[in-house]
Amino acid sequence: MTGMTMVLADRVSKSFGANKVLRSISLSVDAGEVLCIVGPSGSGKSTFLRCINHLERVDAGRLSVEGQLVGYREKGGRLYELKPKEAAFQRREIGMVFQRFNLFPHLTAVENIIQAPMRVKRMSKAKATARAMELMERVGLGDKGDYYPAHLSGGQQQRVAIARALAMDPKLMLFDEPTSALDPELVGEVLDVMKGLAKSGMTMIVVTHEMGFAREVADSLVFMDGGVVVESGDPRQVLTAPQHGRTKAFLSKVL
Amino acid sequence: MLDPEEGEAIRAVPLRHPWRALIAVVLVLALAVFIVDAAQREDYGWAEVGKYIFDKRISQAALVTLQLTVYSMLIAITLGLLLAIMRLSPNPVVKSVAWLYLWIFRGTPVYVQLVFWGIVALIYPVLTLGVPFMTPWVTVPNDIFLNLFITAVIGLALNEAAYMSEIVRAGLLSVDEGQEEASKALAMSWGQTMRYIVVPQAMKIIIPPTGNEVISMLKTTSLVAAIPLSIDLYGVSRGISAVTFTPVPLLIVASIWYLLFTSVLMVGQHFIEKRFSRGTGRRKEDKPTAGGDPSAVVGSTAGDGPTTAALTNAPAGNDAGGKG
Ligand SMILES: Nc1ncnc2c1ncn2[C@@H]1O[C@H](COP(=O)(O)OP(=O)(O)O)[C@@H](O)[C@H]1O
Ligand SMILES: [Mg+2]
């Protein structure tokens, strides 16, 4: 929207031991843009998302969010690894939603949402709770605030997880296959919340197999395979007229 | 789902269990014979038992045993938590130190350890702080071990910490990795993640074996005779019997007190366990009124009873709640 770059990856690589999981990934996401990443299982999509908020460390290349290097500080031409505290500070601006929701099962929905604002931002409990109620309303669960995760359906749990991430007022939201663990009839309610979020101008990177969502909501689409970006561009174009054989083969399987 | 017409009810002759009945009868008879015999046997000295069971010296000693148990368990749990976290640390040195502690304190008998703590003040008469082979900065007499009660608490706690650390470690490892990851992604620090997210969930796993450890510790306190400390329940009852030459009645007295305490602890453990398995919610049964609600999404439009709907729906929405 403003044309400002939110995420910039410049030849990012990452290995686990001898397993090269990301090979020279380059892409950029502008503020307010929605990027969808698709690709077969094991192609490194989750690893790439986890690198963006420094849950994994990048081995080579440069990865920055809002112009700030992720996980490192550059000084006098040298890179210094950030302390855990500094890395945590960078994560405050980045929300993440997981395939398996990862709600805290010993806390109610509202308690899940208020943890980070209270502990990290030192917000008062009353204020955090009021904000949590607002967010629960926003994801369509206004009456479920005092439910424990185990008493909510998968779709409801994932919506609480989205509210929990939003409670930190992130500038960027990362979604790692947010609907893959859901029963088919529950996928729609989560996608609806995400569509609303996209409309409100949130910058989003979404790993998904929901091609309908990608076509409708994404501003751009990246197809990854074997740790490389095989093809990227306008989602309608990539989905209807893929240029590469691997993209074609993958799409013919999922569509 | 149910057929409109039910099939014919089954009316079969139930299977008989003649052996069960026979074994039960034999056991009950054997027990009755033992009790009747014991009641008449001179050596048990039931009159003496009655005389000493509420003796002031005995009840005081029982209090000491309770104190030994509580203090050493509190220290052991704290130290055990620290050791467990050390063992999960990425730092290999920290990890090895914790492992070494475990190896020594779990690998030697607690009786031997207590004897050692009893004489440690002789081996290390002064404690010093400073650079090795140079004049120490601070020198204090090592007189903490002159207090035998404190020595007993330290000896019992250091031994127990090794076992507690294994229990705590198992609890921490039982918490799904995704929990730590989600907490980290929310910018919470490692300490906050442990304190507010991981440890509370680990408690469900930690509490039942810890209850067993408390009960076990209550009985292990009788080994403080090795220090030698003799003001605990076992020590005092032995002291009395040494004078009166009636060892058996006083053993019975001590046993009755131990049984009383362990029984109370077992009841307490039952309630604590129940409390910690609530909240994380396996079932919806305890909240029947709210139980009907989730059906709005999971969808049970058929008008069968609200309880049935809640029970069948709960597991359906549970897939990520993680049956740990
Ligand atoms: N923590 C890890 N340690 C070792 N290997 C890993 C780890 N995480 C992911 N991998 C490996 O990295 C590859 C890419 O995984 P992932 O990023 O999860 O792919 P995707 O999300 O596209 O399915 C896989 O081969 C996987 O086995
Ligand atoms: Mg993945």
What descriptive keywords fit this protein?
heterodimer; A: alpha/beta; 4-stranded antiparallel β-sheet; B: mainly alpha; two-stranded antiparallel ribbon; 2 strands; binds adenosine-5'-diphosphate; binds magnesium ion
Helix share, percent of chain B: 55-70%
Quaternary? heterodimer
Would you list the SSEs of chain A in sequence order as H and E?
A: EEEHEEEEHEHHHEHEHEEHH
Largest interface: A-B, 42 and 36 residues
* Count of individual helical segments of chain B: 12
Q: What's the CATH architecture name of the domain at 63-230 in chain B?
A: Orthogonal Bundle
Q: Which residues of chain B form runs of ≥5 with pLDDT under 50? A: 283-324
Summarize the structure.
Chain A is α/β, with parallel strands linked by helices. Helix content of chain A is about 35%, strand content about 30%.
How would you explain this protein's 3D organization?
Chain B: InterPro entries: AA_ABC_transptr_permease_3TM, ArtM/GltK/GlnP/TcyL/YhdX-like, MetI-like, MetI-like_sf. Chain B: Residues 279-324 are annotated as: Disordered. Chain B: Residues 62-269 form the ABC transmembrane type-1 domain. Chain B: Keywords: Amino-acid transport, Cell membrane, Membrane, Transmembrane, Transmembrane helix, Transport. Chain A has helices spanning 45-52, 84-91, 109-119, 125-138, 154-166, 184-199, 211-217, 235-240, 245-254; strands spanning 5-16, 19-30, 34-38, 60-65, 68-69, 72-75, 78-81, 94-97, 172-176, 203-207, 220-225, 228-233. Chain A has 255 residues and is α/β, with parallel strands linked by helices. A 6-stranded mixed beta sheet of chain A has the order 8-9-10-3-11-12, sandwiched between helices. In chain A, helix 4 crosses helix 5 (154-166). The radius of gyration of chain A is 18 Å and the shape is globular. Chain B has 324 residues and is an all-alpha fold. Chain B contains 12 helices and 2 strands. A two-stranded antiparallel ribbon of chain B has the order 1-2. In chain B, strand 1 (126-129) and strand 2 (138-141) form a beta hairpin. Chain B is flat and about 85 Å long. Chain B starts with 17 loop residues before the first helix and ends in an 8-residue tail after the last helix. Residues 283-324 of chain B have low confidence and may be disordered. The chains are: A alpha/beta (255), B mainly alpha (324). The site of magnesium ion has 4 residues of chain A, from helix 1.
